[in-house]
UniProtKB/TrEMBL annotation:
UniProt cross-references to Gene3D superfamilies, sorted A to Z: HAD superfamily/HAD-like (3.40.50.1000)
InterPro entries documented for this protein: HAD_sf, Isocyanide_synthase_DIT1
Annotated organism of origin: Kutzneria kofuensis
Protein name listed in UniProt: Pyoverdine/dityrosine biosynthesis protein
Domain of life (superkingdom): Bacteria
Signal peptide location: none
Length: 956
């Protein structure tokens, strides 16, 4: 049934309209529904345009809707066939012209993938996966693309007829097969046409073109909803790419990571606590023995008693509903699920199982054919980044450690602790697994993953506080009855994969992460077509945004100050000294949600009294010191697109103004805020970058009216005034001394040879353990700095796309499938991050030696990091732990100003918003494409008025 038939059906009433009129109304309803989807779904908005019939143009608009910012009324709509048509041998095809006309030089194959291939697949998938619509007709004449009058690609597919859209609930297997083959056929036609084209004399090999297309299909058909994945399973070319991760699996794995972080944080506060650990079994859990299983099954397929003609099902095990397992309970379930026991009732299946096990395990060399469970490598990395340790606790014997380690090494996991059992073991495996774990000592077992019920039960009894999770490898039988929970009631996962973004979300959303390492960058879109939807603010619009932020901050300051005595009525009633009352009021202000982050226990009223009284007694401005604003971390392009401060930094200055105005309402002298910048201090950087960043900050400071109470001061300039002219020479000597100490401690380590193995050894050698016990650690700082290293981008490669490939797994150097140039780039990044970490920590130790912490005798110390005792945690923009200089300014659909990573914003459908205050090489902020509109084609895209007028700081 067409989506048109889904319009509200009339009840059995007398016919008031003709059949033709009813059909017209249904068509109009279908177009309106599709227009609404495009309006509110960011991905469709970027990749899909609608050209309804002329008789609906008054209602839905004329020409492709919504209008593209770079296309005027003369926009061209061309079919796939027309795009590839070469009317004469000496003429260029439209596709060749489009690629020649691109704005920035880019590899032709990369360009066609991002502007033609991906939009087709993304629209097809989004309509199906999020909105339940199947796009059936995708022939060479029906697939249409939008081009600008200058023959440039917009990256949008154009729908000119809704008759080919069907409700997913109403299609059958034949319809799905037809739709899948049509999509694959259209892409194959495009690939073949591209392969025959020539670009500056260069032609691309068919294998490379097909691989690029298949790569897009694999990426776009990952993380489908389970319902969509079930619908798409079939005997068609897309089947091999269909992939899904249940939301419950994602929730369980995130909960494990949350508990690891919680345990790790507790251990940082109290180093005597045990280290958090996640325990993972291997066979049919962390490792998938598919090749061994297929081999073992085939060896059992020959004639035997009860099956004189053999068991052909075992000869073709990949056609079975589920593969057999070495575990007897799972083997019995396999017999039931596959139906082979019923078809061969006279076979002694226990004997077959007895033959299966040695065929499965031997020769031991076959163990090397195992593969890592999907998502395992990433999950191990995430556990380690959260401060935990993964332990592989297997029932395998010592004699196969070498074979097992070889498989783990392919994923860069040979550093993970591997517990095996004695070759001569006779006791139950579960008991020995518990013994192995207890023998380690000093571990807080947060979670246990195992495929066998008996193992889980014993481990749960031994570690009652741990999450015990069942694993059922896809395609294998287990002891679980299909459709029922595991026998022990354990929660169940199939793989170690997590969702890279919120399931089912079509509205642009922020990531709410504090580290880019938390993002699965390899799964995110770099948003090349989104860059063509950029918004350009005028000077008046820019100043209006700033003025409104300042006015709202001042009004909020007055409200906060006016409410303060009421909040402290009880405490103030017992205090008569005016200065003591002021201390309580100002402490209350520092703790307000719009200003404060972290635990209130780190800055008590008593601490505030010690800091404030020297100023209150003199009726002088209170000295406030806050470190920050080093430089914009734009080295890779994944965090930010340029080196200058954007609206996020300006927003922090507005917040500091709000703090000042609030304090002045209660204490007239107010604050004197010194922002200690450290652009050169920890890591040497080009002077032009640091100076341009600071110059723009001072311009922002004037725009928000903060120059009378706030100053930016380089931390080393302040130190020279306090410590003396000998500072520079002393710093050079001390930094070199500490750098040599790190080099000597790590002289046998090469981060570019075995990254994870080296990092596992670092804590045993780290000089920081001696100088700052329980404080900064080399490994943690290295992981942080790793994502802020400059990249050398090859010619013709998009910067963000290249960085995404490098940072997909920067520790993976051993996978033969990884291109050589990517491995080389990763090694460069690892070595540079190692060197930068040595320099950074050497500067930290030097600061401590020279007394940098005591540069100001009396002051209130704000910190944008999690506060330690005696410091006030400052929330900056609030709502996100991500600091403005670590990301890109962004507003959500309500206008709330925040910070997020550039690659995440592009993936979510945010588009760049440029302003004259920053120029046109770097966005001033990013905004949801669904909150933009083209009203005047001469001006391009604009923020919708309600969003532009509603940009505001978060109140808590």
């Amino acid at each position: 049934m067409s989506m048109l038939d889904g319009a509200a059906a009339p009840r059995a009433v007398p016919r008031l309209v003709s059949d033709g009129c009813a059909e017209h109304l249904a068509v109009a309803a279908g177009w309106r529904r599709l227009a609404e989807l495009v309006r509110r779904d960011a991905e469709l908005r970027l990749h899909l345009a609608l050209r309804p019939p002329h008789d609906l143009s008054a209602d839905l608009g004329d020409g492709p809707q919504p209008p593209h910012p770079r296309a005027s009324d003369q926009v061209r709509i061309v079919s796939l066939a027309a795009l590839l048509d070469r009317r004469a041998t000496d003429e260029r095809t439209l596709l060749e012209q489009v690629i020649a006309n691109q704005h920035e030089p880019m590899d032709a194959l990369d360009f066609v993938v991002e502007h033609f291939v991906r939009p087709v697949v993304a629209v097809w998938r989004a309509l199906l996966d999020r909105h339940g619509l199947v796009l059936l007709d995708l022939g060479a004449d029906s697939v249409r693309f939008e081009l600008t009058p200058g023959v440039r690609a917009t990256g949008r597919v154009v729908v000119t007829d809704v008759a080919g859209l069907r409700e997913a609930a109403d299609v059958d297997a034949l319809d799905v097969d037809r739709a899948a083959r049509a999509l694959h056929g259209a892409l194959s036609t495009l690939a073949a046409g591209f392969q025959q084209a020539s670009f500056d004399g260069r032609q691309y090999k068919g294998r490379a073109v097909r691989a690029a297309v298949e790569s897009v299909l694999a990426a776009e058909l990952r993380y489908l909803t389970p319902e969509t994945a079930d619908l798409l399973r079939g005997d068609h070319p897309l089947d091999r790419h269909v992939h899904s991760v249940p939301e419950e699996q994602d929730r369980l794995l995130r909960e494990v990571l949350r508990r690891v972080e919680e345990s790790s944080a507790a251990r940082r506060r109290d180093p005597s606590l045990p280290a958090p650990a996640v325990v993972i079994d291997l066979d049919l859990c962390g490792l998938v023995p598919k090749a061994r299983t297929l081999h073992a099954a085939r060896t059992l397929a020959g004639p035997r008693e009860g099956a004189p003609q053999g068991i052909p099902e075992l000869a073709r095990p990949d056609t079975l509903r589920a593969l057999p397992s070495y575990s007897k309970p799972a083997w019995d379930r396999f017999l039931e699920v596959s139906g082979v026991a019923g078809r061969y009732p006279n076979v002694e299946w226990d004997d077959v199982h007895a033959e299966f096990c040695p065929a499965f395990y031997r020769p031991w060399e076959r163990l090397r054919s195992d593969s890592l469970a999907p998502g395992l490598v990433r999950f191990v990395r995430d556990v380690e980044d959260a401060g935990g340790e993964v332990v592989f606790n297997t029932g395998r014997r010592d004699r196969v450690r070498e074979h097992t380690t070889a498989v783990l090494a392919r994923g860069g996991l040979n550093h993970v602790r591997l517990l095996t059992l004695p070759d001569d073991r006779v006791r139950p495996i579960a008991e020995l697994k518990v013994e192995n774990l207890r023998r380690l000592g000093g571990l807080d077992v947060v979670a246990v993953f195992d495929d066998l019920t008996e193992n889980r039960q014993v481990l749960r009894d031994s570690f009652p506080a741990a999450m015990v999770i069942a694993v059922e490898a896809p395609g294998f039988a287990s002891d679980r009855v299909p459709g029922c929970p595991p026998p022990d009631g354990a929660p169940l996962i199939a793989t170690f994969e997590r969702l890279p973004r919120q399931a089912g979300g079509s509205t642009p959303a922020l990531s709410h992460t504090h580290s880019i390492a938390e993002l699965q960058v390899s799964e995110l879109s770099v948003g090349l077509p989104a860059r063509g939807h950029a918004v350009n603010l005028s000077v008046a619009q820019t100043l209006s945004v700033i003025d409104r932020l300042v006015a709202e901050a001042d009004a909020s300051a007055q409200r906060t100050a006016a409410a303060a005595p009421g909040h402290l009525r009880s405490a103030l009633s017992t205090v008569s000294d005016p200065l003591e009352r002021t201390v309580l009021l100002l402490h209350h202000v520092f703790m307000r949600k719009q200003f404060h982050r972290g635990s209130r226990a780190t800055y008590t009223p008593e601490m505030a009294r010690n800091d404030l009284m020297p100023f209150l007694r003199r009726d002088a401005p209170i000295q406030v010191v806050v470190p920050g604003f080093p430089v914009k971390q734009s080295q890779s392009g994944l965090k930010a697109s340029g080196v200058l401060p954007d609206l996020a930094e300006l927003g922090v200055l507005v917040r500091l103004r709000e703090l000042q105005q609030t304090v002045k309402c209660l204490y007239k002298p107010g604050l004197r805020i010194t922002v200690l910048t450290d652009g050169h201090h920890f890591r040497p950087r080009p002077a032009v970058i640091v100076e341009s960043y600071l110059r723009k900050l001072n311009q922002y400071l004037r725009l928000v009216g903060g120059q009378d109470f706030l100053e930016f001061a380089d931390i080393d300039d302040v130190a020279r005034r306090k410590i003396g002219s000998s500072l520079d020479s002393e710093r050079i000597v001390l930094i070199e001394y500490y750098q040599n100490a790190f080099r000597k401690a790590f002289e046998e380590l090469d981060i570019a040879s075995d990254p994870m193995g080296v990092l596992s050894r670092v804590p045993l050698l780290d000089p920081m353990a001696e100088h700052t016990p329980g404080g900064l650690a080399f490994r943690d700082m290295f992981r942080s700095i790793l994502h802020s290293v400059a990249l050398d981008v090859p010619a013709g490669k998009d910067r963000m796309s290249w960085a995404r490939a490098v940072y997909a797994d920067p520790y993976q150097l051993a996978d033969p499938a990884t291109p050589t140039e990517i491995v080389r780039a990763r090694k460069q990044v690892l070595r540079q991050a190692w060197s930068d970490t040595v320099r950074y920590l050497s500067a930290v130790l030097t600061d401590r030696e020279l007394g940098y912490d005591a540069l100001f005798e009396h002051r209130v110390r704000l910190t944008v990091s999690m506060p330690s005792p005696g410091r006030v945690g400052f929330a900056a923009l609030g709502g996100s732990a991500l600091l403005p200089w670590h990301g890109t300014a962004a507003i959500d659909e309500k206008g709330t100003l925040s910070t997020d990573f550039a690659i995440w914003l592009y993936d979510q459908g945010f588009v760049p918003v440029y302003s004259p205050v920053l120029g046109y090489r770097q966005p001033w902020l990013m905004a949801p494409v669904t909150s933009t509109a083209v009203v005047d084609s001469a001006r391009g895209a604009q923020l919708v008025p309600e969003l532009l007028d509603g940009i505001h700081l978060r109140r808590k």
